[in-house]
Amino acid sequence: MKINIGIDEEQRKAIAHGLSVLLADTYTLYLKTHNYHWNVTGPMFQTLHTLFETQYTELAVAVDDIAERIRALGEFAPGSYKEYARLTNLKEADGIPSAEEMIKDLVKGQEAIAKTARSIVPVADGASDEVTLDLLTQRMTVHEKNAWMLRSLVA
């Protein structure tokens, strides 16, 4: 059936494209955070192991929320490593970094996702897409808070 939610097709496609980048960034950060959860070592092990688990669990929920919004806009959500690698703004880490380097890398990832979400705001706002704007606001709130918490762990 044709979608009739008050947002024209061109606007829905543009919003969905931005959300696809956000989805790819979020999934990439999820994988990276989960990897660091498994492989962190050192005197901050317990703190970081727990913090990383909290963050990757939240990212897993976010992936679903973002993908479902893309679908509600009438587009297909990307769902493969190949598509995520093409769309993401995040870089994979080589090897297993030190705990401090993990923290710094995750700060960059959290900040990058906040910027990706913020870049979609004008498109969604121009379409009066309050549902996507709400989702973006929630994502920016979480990522900016996570970046702050992670930054607080390093000098």
From TrEMBL:
It comes from the Bacteria. InterPro entries: DPS_DNA-bd, DPS_DNA-bd_CS, Ferritin-like, Ferritin-like_SF, Ferritin_DPS_dom. It holds the Pfam family Ferritin. GO terms for molecular function: ferric iron binding; oxidoreductase activity, acting on metal ions. Residues 19-154 form the Ferritin/DPS domain. PANTHER family: DNA PROTECTION DURING STARVATION PROTEIN, GENERAL STRESS PROTEIN 20U. Belongs to the Dps family. This is Ferritin Dps family protein.
